[in-house]
TrEMBL record:
Protein name as catalogued: DUF1206 domain-containing protein
The entry's keywords: Membrane, Transmembrane, Transmembrane helix
The species this protein was found in: Gordonia sesuvii
TM spans (from-to): 28-49, 69-87, 114-134, 154-176, 197-222, 242-265
Domain DUF1206 per the UniProt entry, residue ranges: 25-91, 115-180, 201-269
Protein's UniProt keywords contain Transport: no
Transmembrane helix as UniProt keyword: yes
Pfam short name (any one): DUF1206
Length: 272
């Protein structure tokens, strides 16, 4: 299949209003996950336990009556959103906004971002399926185990440092997007005061948590301590050990909750 044929096929598939609705449902599920994550972080702030990452939030669903049905719905929604991002990566812009692609370097940046989001949402869909079937595992434990294997080799440690730097860069991008309010460009309508405030707080907080996780990956590689390379969960629990840890965790919880609320805004008004 030629590139033009692939583009035409993607155009036809994404013309389906049901596909777009399913993809938008992915934002709703993502918002719910972040609200649950915020709850877990707040619980840790007051001495509770839990895995402070998306797998921990999915585990909360799994433990509730009817939770497995919800997880299957979440898996379908995340898969639809992942495929929508893949379509954006192929087209080089928003699927239903042909003017969003300018053919320059920014187009390739948008393609790379869409491809990264495709991988992210696909992994969330897979995690939801695993928890729905009763085989879900903490992503923090998986990350720590994989990091431990990589640390057995010099090349593996270097790879972890590179991964950590990439994660820090992603976190920095989230902070930049929040502080500069660039996230408003993702919406089909201008954001009011509440939407703007929610986006600024949400993106900045999430970016800070992601960057913290990346820094811990780098520290873990240098110190050969795989327990520090368990992702967002490790970053959150590192905050808990700081002198003002409780206050920082409460702020992180509020920020993640704000991002969750902004995901609901995305479900309704995102340019797609």
């Amino acid at each position: 299949m030629s590139r033009n044929q692939a583009v035409r096929t993607v155009d036809r598939v994404t013309d389906s209003p049901w596909f777009e609705r399913a993809a938008r449902a992915g934002h709703v599920v993502n918002g719910l996950l972040h609200l649950l994550l915020a709850y877990i972080v707040a619980r840790i702030a007051f001495g509770g336990g839990g895995s402070a990452d998306q797998s921990g939030a999915l585990a909360v669903f799994a433990g509730q009556p009817g939770g497995r049905v919800v997880l299957w719905v979440a898996a379908v929604a995340f898969l639809a959103l992942a495929l929508w991002r893949l379509a954006e990566a192929i087209l080089g812009g928003k699927v239903n906004d042909p003017d969003s692609s300018d053919g320059g370097l920014s187009e390739w940046f948008d393609r790379g971002k869409a491809l990264a989001l495709f991988v992210l949402y696909l992994s969330l869909a897979w995690s939801a399926v695993n928890f729905a079937t009763g085989s879900g595992q903490s992503s923090g434990q998986q990350n720590a185990g994989m990091s431990a294997r990589l640390m057995e080799h010099t090349g593996g440690k270097l790879l972890l440092v590179i991964v950590g730097l990439i994660v820090v860069a992603v976190g920095g991008y989230f902070v930049y997007k929040g502080v500069t309010k660039n996230f408003l460009d993702d919406l089909r309508r201008g954001g009011g005061t509440a939407v703007t405030a929610t986006g600024v707080i949400g993106y900045t907080a999430k970016g800070g948590v992601i960057a913290g996780a990346g820094i811990l990956v780098i520290v873990a590689a240098i110190r050969a301590d795989p327990s520090k390379a368990s992702g967002i969960d490790a970053a959150i629990k590192t905050l808990a050990g700081l002198p003002a840890g409780q206050i920082l965790l409460i702020l992180a919880a509020l920020g993640l909750a704000a991002y969750g609320v902004y995901c609901f805004v995305m479900a309704r008004w995102a340019r797609m």
